[in-house]
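input
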Amino acid sequence: MPAERMLAGERILLTLWVGGLWTVGYVVAPALFANLDDRALAGTLAGVMFGIMAWIGILCSVLLLVSNQLRSPRQRFNWRALVLLAMLVLTLVGQFVLAPMIAGLREAGASGTTEFARMHGLAAALYLLTSVLGLALVAAPVSTPDRA
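output
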């Protein structure tokens, strides 16, 4: 695959993932809580959207890591790969560790507890870190083997 097409594909995947993170996390979810009277419904809808974004992130990060490796086979752990790997790990922790814990607390009727607030705050911090790392990838120039 020509390098230009591979780079275009990477940009599209990164835009889908990072743009989705920022849109869902900082536009849609706050709008749900601001406009729905039922906070439980707002939380449920936001949780569904965060789950969708997690799966998009997992898919995009794997494809981006593979593409990065194909484009730079001699640089197995360049900074882009490390940032993508960090974003993937943060997404996996959020989706498969924190989200089930938060859902369990909500189902147990503990959504107003300190433990719920702590788990929700941790999930929000990981999401923010993932979003900022993604923004760094979007803003950074990409070098090709021809320009490296």
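quick obs: Residues 3-35 form the longest helix (33 residues).
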